[in-house]
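Form P-L/3: holo structure prediction, ligand protoporphyrin IX containing FE.
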Amino acid sequence: MYTGFKHLHSGLAYLLLAGVVFALLYAIISKNKPFTSGSRKVALIGLVFAHIQFVAGLVLYFISPLGASNFSGEAMKERTARLFILEHPVMMLIAVACITVGYSRMKRLSSDKKKYNSIIIYYGLGLILMLSMIPWKIWP
Ligand code: HEM
Ligand code: HEM
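OUTPUT (holo model):
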């Protein structure tokens, strides 16, 4: 079960990063064009991968030896251990929240330009947070 979720979380990370980069580039390129239902679907792909990855990460947190079971004062002093028990989960939660806010704002806003801007700003912020908290030592 642990190995399965570890691979799922590791593999979904590629799809999520690709989905968010694609949505971001699409919004930047289309900025001055009308916002269509296709534009919304492109943003939806990034959102769905973000939500699935979050749920996978949450499960992994409770079954991985690097997750909740490793939580201790000693582990807090160690850089890599602290990344997995605290920094990675918390910052990824904020990153996924940014992407969700960007998508919901996009749905609510009325002007096409503002819709694209919502994706550019919030997906961009989410991407930066995700890139900063990926454990590059062990991934890809
Ligand atoms: C949503 C964006 C997220 C991304 C892009 C992401 C990405 C990654 C990547 C690339 C790894 C390394 C996987 C490997 O090759 O072993 C990893 C590991 C891990 N992630 Fe995430 N993660 C995300 C969210 C979360 C969340 C929300 C949690 C917990 C609540 C979490 C918990 C963990 C844990 C515990 C590990 C260590 C797994 C192990 O090796 O035992 N992740 N994450
Ligand atoms: C802890 C688990 C989850 C939480 C807290 C969560 C939260 C949310 C929130 C707050 C929204 C609203 C965005 C809006 O205003 O439109 C949303 C939308 C959405 N979520 Fe999640 N989600 C979770 C898991 C998932 C999973 C596992 C999936 C996919 C299998 C998913 C798919 C979607 C989709 C497709 C939408 C957009 C619906 C639309 O088009 O408006 N979510 N989610």
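COMMENT: The domain at 2-133 is CATH 1.20.120 (Four Helix Bundle (Hemerythrin (Met), subunit A)).
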